[in-house]
Amino acid sequence: MAEFKYSPILCEKTYRIVVVRKNLSVEKGEQVLFDDIRYIFYLTNDWDISANEVVLLANDRCNQENLIEQLKNGVRALHAPVDNLLSNWAYMVMASLAWTLKAWFALSLPEKGRWANKHSSEKRTVLKMEFKTFLNAFMRIPCQIIRTSRRILYRLLAWNPWQHVFLRGVYALRCPMRC
Fold first, then answer.
1. 75-123: per-residue pLDDT in tens?
2. 150 falls within a domain
3. Could you read off the pLDDT of 109-163 as tens digits, one per residue?
4. Mutual angle of helices 85-107 and 116-128, in 10-degree steps
């Protein structure tokens, strides 16, 4: 790990660059074929924290790139399907609303009781889940709606590995929310 000052030509401000060198060995079986050396650069204007903290903070923020990628390719919120700005804006709002509903469902999953650790890990998994996977696990569930004299029954016609999480979420949303 190394660091140095960097000042762009047309800029009056000086920045700090932290460089991390990674030595990646390419192997086949137990034999090392060659070493692949990669350099990762972190640009910052924070001079108060150590170089290790700069790297850790930057790596913690990398999840934002995954969220942007999911909005771009998973929900296709940045896709412009129509020829005018207002319709494209409405499409983007609807797509980002779908992503928000996914996050809201994950955050509303209860994680208390005997299986709190398992429920907590499932909640994190649903929150980090790609939108396509969420769509297939929680939205595209074949269901038969049966109307009886005093109630409406929803009969699930297929099973998937996320069904217990789905039913736990439905039960949590069915009960009135209390602050």
1. 777 777 888 889 888 888 888 898 889 999 999 998 888 999 999 999 9
2. yes
3. 988 889 999 999 999 999 888 888 999 999 999 999 999 988 888 899 999 999 9
4. 170
> Is the CB of residue 126 less than 8 Å from the CB of residue 109?
yes
Domain, as residue range, for 103: 69-174
179 part of a folded domain:
no
In this structure, are 95 and 25 located in the same domain?
Answer: no
| 158 shares a domain with 93 | yes
3-state secondary structure the chain: CEEEEECCCCCCCCEEEEEEEEEEEEEECCEEEEEEEEEEEEEECCCCCCHHHHHHHHHHCCHHHHHHHHHHHHCCCCCCCCCCHHHHHHHHHHHHHHHHHHHHHHHCCCCCCCCHHHHHHHHHHHHHCCHHHHHHHHHCCCEEEEECCCCEEEEECCCCCCHHHHHHHHHHHHCCCCC
- Provide the whole-model pTM: 0.61
